Fold:
Amino acid sequence: MAIILVVDDELGIRALLSEILTDEGHTVEMAENAAEARAVRERLRPDLVLLDIWMPDVDGITLLKEWGATGLLTMPVIMMSGHGTIDTAVEATKFGAMAFLEKPVTLQKLLRAVEQGLAKPSAAARPATPVNHPHHNHHIGDSSLTVEAAMTGGQGLPNTPLLLGPQAEQSFDLDRPLREARDAFEKSYFEFHLAQENGSMTRVAEKTGLERTHLYRKLKQLGVDLSRNKRGGAL
Structure:
């Protein structure tokens, strides 16, 4: 798999992204500021970088510009920010970022952006393709660049209607070992709450009383189909 560098000054974000990407089979290196990011980039030459914009010393956009100006932007860079605006997304893509993810980062968009980034040879600046999305249809001047396009490297999410989720009342086959019955109940329980919360991992974690990383592990263990529930789910 790939070597991915996560640059974020928040320990919780670094740990969560590392947990998820490691679980997907990638090797994850972490940096909490631009100085550490420069060192890791030089030492390991990562295949992809997840770069936070708001950092205390040198912000992510400045580091992105620096890499671009010195010929070091040889890998795809995905920008992240908890205060994302369309202007920030446009600026990031203009200086070579292949995608912009708004925090809280959704599980689907994270994995999709990483997959798309690793499929591309470099993070050289490229025009974003106009995308028509029902929830993000703000246009910038004559470029027709939508928020969704700027945040996903020019590729919006498919306009797929949500399927009806699991119902609150269900029947279970109790004539089987306790562990099997319990796992079946827990799987249905989490699928129900994921559907109720539109796939938001944060809200499901709060509702079920589980820490997000533990919840993610639990869902993987139970074989819950996250691809179906995580359309709008936030980490």
Summary: The chain has two domains: 3-151, 160-235. Residues 3-151 form a domain with the Rossmann fold fold (CATH 3.40.50.2300). The radius of gyration is 19 Å.
